[in-house]
Amino acid sequence: MNPVPSELDLAPTDTAVSIEGVVKKYGEQTVLREVSLKIRRGEFLTLLGPSGCGKTTLLNLIAGFAEADRGEVFIDGQPVTSEPPHRRQIGLVFQNYALFPHMTVERNIGYGLRMQGVAKEEASRRVGEAMALVKLEGLGHRKPRELSGGQQQRVALARALVIQPKVLLLDEPFSALDKSLRGSMQVEIREIQRRLGLTTVFVTHDQGEALAMSDRIAVMSAGVICQIAPPAELYRNPQDPFVASFVGDVNILPAHYHGKMAGDVQLRLGSGLISLPQDRVVHGSHEGARLDVYVRPEHMRLEHLHASSVLSGTVINHVFQGDHINTFVDVDLPMTARQIITVRSPGLSAMQQWPVGSVAGLALADEGVSVFAPRP
Predict the structure, then answer these.
(1) Three-state SS across the chain?
(2) CA-based angle 194:199:133, to the nearest 5?
């Protein structure tokens, strides 16, 4: 089994959660395929991927709500694969919060402590501390139906934290919140996690959430982890075509391998050649091999058309996005009938300089470009 790009080589004492060679099937469908992962103590790690990629199943294996067909799960160095959820000291915030509607806020938060047999006085103290931590003071007597969505989420978070878990698991906790509240809750949860130094595993399909909150992101597809890396590295240096296309916006341009010059790789793109560092290009490529160039919209720019312009096209639309403009350009490429490329520019200059219908050249920056073999 090949190692996942950018996986950490952690000592056992630095590892809070270790997943080793986990396989999970539902009937004939394999949901997780030999997944291995190490999560450091105090880390905020996000499992990111589309629906059906296996991220929630992996979270359920850590929590104990699902059982692996093969492989092991360790928490604090101890095997927990056969342990039930209540023996794992896990805090979990569900997508729908799963609050008890007949209980007050205080009793919802203290539920786990009652199940653990914590003394009443101790439980009351810890519930009060948890309510203060998530800013719910004065709301202990209310029922969930009397709370806003954000307040209900705070109750669910306090209930997960009050048991003093070894690991906090967050299963798409922001999906029911509106955009502005979602942003503020992201900041608050991250602040609490840092303050407590709590190992946290967060599941989402939202790339923006993952980039904003994580120490590292594990991108999943079809039951495997494609790449694990800090957000900036993942965005700037994807090691897999799925990662390059799923994390952030990207233009995919057809090209051919042309050769090497002065240590760089030359690719034939459009009407000319571009040069890229060797580490940006698939190894083992040969003369004429078909490749795809992945380039972020902010790493392309419009320019006046001239003889050495590699690409050219017609501006068909501008979309104002507040702090930037997305310009859509209809580009003619030899290997495609038609392709629309997105160019991201700061301010309004692109809209003013390149009105709809104008013909422009397109240049690629030296960074933000990756090259892979075409996906099947």
Answers:
(1) CCCCCCCCCCCHHHEEEEEEEEEEEECCEEEEEEEEEEEECCCEEEEECCCCCCHHHHHHHHHCCCCCCEEEEEECCEECCCCCHHHCCEEEECCCCCCCCCCCHHHHHCHHHHHHCCCHHHHHHHHHHHHHHCCCCCCCCCCHHHCCHHHHHHHHHHHHHCCCCCEEEEECCCCCCCHHHHHHHHHHHHHHHHHHCCEEEEEECCHHHHHHHCCEEEEEECCEEEEEECHHHHHHCCCCHHHHHHCCCCEEEEEEEEEEECCEEEEEECCEEEEEEHHHCCCCCCCCCEEEEEECHHHEEEECCCCCCCEEEEEEEEEECCCEEEEEEEEEECCEEEEEEEEEEECCHHHHHCCCCCEEEEEECCCCEEEECCCC
(2) 45
Question: Which structure tokens are listed for 180?
Answer: 């502005």
Non-local (6+) Cβ contacts of 269 within 8 A are 253, 254, 255, 293, 310, 311
Closest CA to 361 of 275, 281, 298, 301: 301
Contact between residue 163 and residue 113 where contact means Cβ atoms under 8 Å apart: yes
- Cα separation, 333 vs 351, whole angstroms: 24
| Burial bucket for residue 288 (CB in 10 Å: 0-12, 13-18, 19+) | exposed
> Could you read off the pLDDT of 280-336 as tens digits, one per residue?
777 667 788 889 999 999 999 999 988 778 888 999 999 998 889 999 999 978 666
- pLDDT one-digit tens code per residue, 209-236: 999 999 999 999 999 999 999 999 999 9
- How many CA atoms are closer than 13 Å to the CA of 80, on its beta-carbon side? 26
Q: Indicate the pTM of the whole model.
A: 0.90
| Confidence tier at 207 by pLDDT (50, 70, 90) | very high
Q: Are 39 and 15 in contact (CB under 8 A)?
A: yes
